[in-house]
Specification:
single chain; 18% strand; 4 helices; 122 residues; 3-stranded mixed β-sheet; 3 strands; 54% helix
Length: 122
Amino acid sequence: MRKNSVKNTRVNGEVQRVLAEIIRGEIKDPRISPLTSVVAVEVAPDLKSCKAWISVLGGEEERAATLAGLKSAEGFIKRKLAQTVNLRNTPDITFVMDQSIEYGVNMSRRIDEVMGNATEEL
C-alpha cells in the first residue's frame, strides 16, 4: 500500500469533517441513528471515489437501517459535499460499516472476564 500524499491526507480529513456535519445536522431520514459517527474516510487519488467507514452505536437493526438510510441519501450527501468542499471532482461515496469499536469493546470485556477469573482462582 502506498503512502498518502499530504494533499490526499488533507482531502481525507476535510471530507470526513464535512460528511460528519452533513450526517449529524442535515439529513432528516428517521432510519439514520443519531449516534452515527464517521470513523475514517479514504478518497482515491483521482478524486473519483471515496470510502467512508461509519460506526453506529446500537444494535444490528440500527446499523442496517442507518446503512440503508445513508445509501438512499447518497445523492443528497454528494450534492452537499460538492457545495461545501471545493474539489475538481466530487467523489462517489461508498459507506462501509466499521466494526472496530464494537470489536474493541468486546475484547475489553473478554479481558476483564479472564482477569476476573484469574483473581478468583488466587
